Amino acid sequence: MRIVVQRVREARVEIAGETVGRIGQGLLLLVGIAEGDTMAEVELLAKKVAQLRIFSDEAGKMNRSVQDIEGGVLSVSQFTLYGDCRKGNRPSFVNAARPETAEPLYNALNQLFRTQYGLPVETGRFGADMQVSLLNDGPVTILMDTAS
Hints:
D-tyrosyl-trna(Tyr) Deacylase, Chain: A; 148 residues; 20% helix; single chain; alpha/beta; two-stranded antiparallel ribbon; 8 strands; 2 helices
């Protein structure tokens, strides 16, 4: 499982010109599920993301989590995080989980953020063609991967 975590001042996702998810200060998550991922990976990264200290404290140090600042989460599914470009110029996505496997794990991740970590979560729409807009804060971008 891979998650690109971006600290944002604001972010939104649109589908066909309609805003389907929007947050103010918080985290934009681009979420990729790999073939073979299970709830163990979901639980691990949910905890890591919720507790990731990348927001500034009073001294200007990255010492606060999205929970600490009462920020939001905008979670966007993105199978292209598993694009493999080692051979040729056209990415292969064979390492990405099939939708029937990935969607329930993606939904479980978002539910954990809401129920276990008390985070307000907005989402895109799984499998849709989405346009994501953000104002990256910092910029701060972290890649989390259960395979490494």
